[in-house]
Amino acid sequence: MKIIAFAGMPFSGKSEAVQIAKDLNIPVFRMGDAIWDEVKNRGLELNDKNVGMIADKMRKEHGKDVWARRTLDKIKSLNKTDVVVIDGVRNVEEIDRFKKELGKDFVVIAIEASDESRYGRAQSRGRQDDSKDLEKIKERDKRELRWGLDVVIASADIVISNEGNIDDFRNEIRKTLNEI
């Protein structure tokens, strides 16, 4: 099985890339879903503060690859497929876990966008766990960098910029996924 993982800072364009994968009928597993499930199971409101707190706490208590392990259960329950996309890898420990359990045919695609572009998108996106407060967005950036996201982005197999227009970005993602 070929595994493609999207990584990038918040609001860089991962969700848009994931939608392209879905449009191409590639099964997608969003690591954030496991965190959202945990937040809901604890009876907490689904917001950036609680999602970040639970994600951080669980990594400290159960290892940096805890969300990869929880996502693996869902991937392994999938019927035979040639390729899957994993959205939201945050550290090398998660990548190592996926490679150990699923195989070495693993490609990390980093989506890059400037802080200015990302913060502009943050103001317009409406996902339930998003914050529109610039200071809270910067706190989220620091938290995700602390988890090791910068190392994942720096060591990505493929880097795609999301600074131009949305159609060019979508076409680049589509082209890259088809080539893989």
Structure commentary:
The chain is an alpha/beta fold. The protein has nine helices and five strands, in the order E-H-E-H-H-H-E-H-E-H-H-H-E-H. Helix 2 packs across helix 3 (48-62). It has a single domain, classed as Rossmann fold. 33% of the residues are buried. Strands 2-3-1-4-5 form a five-stranded parallel beta sheet, with helices on both faces. It has helices spanning 14-23, 31-41, 48-62, 66-76, 92-102, 115-124, 134-147, 149-154, 166-179; strands at 2-8, 28-30, 83-87, 106-112, 158-161. Helices cover 57% and strands 14% of the residues.
In short:
With 180 residues, the chain is α/β, with parallel strands linked by helices. It has helices spanning 14-23, 31-41, 48-62, 66-76, 92-102, 115-124, 134-147, 149-154, 166-179; strands at 2-8, 28-30, 83-87, 106-112, 158-161. The termini are close together.
CATH topology: Rossmann fold
Tally of separate domains: 1
Give the averaged pLDDT, no decimals. 91
What kind of sheet is the major sheet?
A: 5 strands, parallel
List the strand order in the largest sheet. 2-3-1-4-5
Helicity, as a percent range: 55-70%
List the helices and strands in order: EHEHHHEHEHHHEH
Distance separating the two termini: 12 Å
Structural class determined from secondary elements: alpha/beta
In DSSP terms, counting alpha (H) and pi (I) runs of 4 or more, how many helices?
Answer: 9
Shape: globular
Low-pLDDT windows of residues: none
List the helices and strands and how they pair.
Layout: E1 2-8, H1 14-23, E2 28-30, H2 31-41, H3 48-62, H4 66-76, E3 83-87, H5 92-102, E4 106-112, H6 115-124, H7 134-147, H8 149-154, E5 158-161, H9 166-179
Parallel strand pairs: 1-3, 1-4, 2-3, 4-5
